[in-house]
Specification:
Blueprint: E1 5-9, H1 21-30, E2 35-41, H2 62-73, E3 80-88, H3 94-101, E4 108-112, E5 115-116, E6 119-120, H4 135-151, E7 157-158, H5 173-190, E8 193-197, H6 212-220, E9 225-228, H7 241-251, E10 255-260, E11 263-268
Parallel strand pairs: 1-2, 2-3, 3-4, 4-7, 7-8, 8-9
Antiparallel strand pairs: 5-6, 10-11
The structure holds zinc ion (2 copies).
Residues 10, 14, 16, 41, 232 line the site of one zinc ion.
Length: 270
């Protein structure tokens, strides 16, 4: 049987996604995905952060989320369900994040940068703030946070790398190269994996996170990669995966990475 994975799936618990975990599982099954990793937003309140918008689970929802994902794993013998979580990397909170993560039996942890200071630069309601930014400085700030997230060694995967381009504020390719090269170096040094996150194709930028330029560099540097839709609605599970797999093969990837109890598992790209 051909294996296919989707390792970044949200649920309605985070407050800005639609659908129960069961509905996502059914959607994945219909798309012939054989292994899914739920990765809903870890409660920001447990990391000492209170963003005004509802962007993560509530602390009291976490136990139910874990129980539900575990229950789903035994539902269909042909499908594997992994328990993951997407955690905001908040600088200076390494100890608190480590302490929180040690309490739960996650199969994998995605570390994501959504905030520069108090600005949630991925949130559509805060897009207008891009207009006042110096792009070079913005990319510097974003990538420094990503590198710090890798160096913290708290995470198995860095989420949606280069999402700072989400609303189409792009730097020329020549200026992007040093960011990708340094990211590859830091990923390798810290033993952190990347994801090819297809959600960017539905964002104003209409590109994967990361796109072809980054993927070529990461493949050349031997950085392991997982594949994910970042679905916030059941019909988004596996979105653009045919195109994504083709691109991964074209740049030279021959395998994908999955996780079990925070250890990597290799899946052949057929
Ligand atoms: Zn989300
Ligand atoms: Zn995210």
């Amino acid at each position: 049987m051909v294996k296919m994975i989707d390792y970044h799936i949200h649920t309605s618990l985070c407050g800005h996604a639609r659908g129960t975990p069961y509905q996502y599982l059914i959607a994945a099954r219909e798309k012939a995905i054989t292994e899914i990793g739920f990765a809903d937003h870890f409660p920001l309140a447990l990391l000492g952060c209170n963003s005004g918008d509802k962007v993560s689970m509530e602390p009291e929802e976490l136990a139910g989320y874990i129980a539900e994902v575990h229950r789903l794993d035994s539902l269909f013998p042909e499908m594997t369900v992994r328990l993951g979580v997407e955690v905001d990397y908040l600088p200076g909170q390494d100890g608190l994040i480590a302490e929180q993560l040690s309490r739960y039996p996650f199969d994998f942890v995605i570390g994501s940068v959504h905030f520069i200071g108090s600005w949630d630069f991925t949130h559509p309601a805060r897009e207008r703030e891009y207009r006042h930014k110096n792009l070079q400085k913005l990319y510097d700030d974003y990538f420094k946070l990503v590198w710090d997230a890798c160096r913290s060694r708290l995470f198995d995967v860095i989420g949606h790398l280069d999402i700072v381009k989400k609303f189409g504020y792009l730097l020329p390719e020549a200026e992007m190269e040093p960011y990708y090269l340094e990211t590859a170096r830091v990923l390798k040094e810290s033993g952190t994996c990347l994801e090819l996150n297809t959600a960017g194709r539905d964002a104003p930028v209409k590109q994967f996170y990361p796109g072809r330029q980054g993927l070529e560099i990461f493949c050349r540097e031997g950085i392991p990669i997982t594949l994910s839709s970042d679905a916030h609605a059941p019909q988004q599970v596996g979105r653009y995966f045919t195109e994504a797999v083709e691109l991964l093969r074209r740049v030279g990837y021959r395998e994908l990475t999955g996780f079990c109890r925070r250890r990597r598992v290799t899946i052949d790209l057929e």
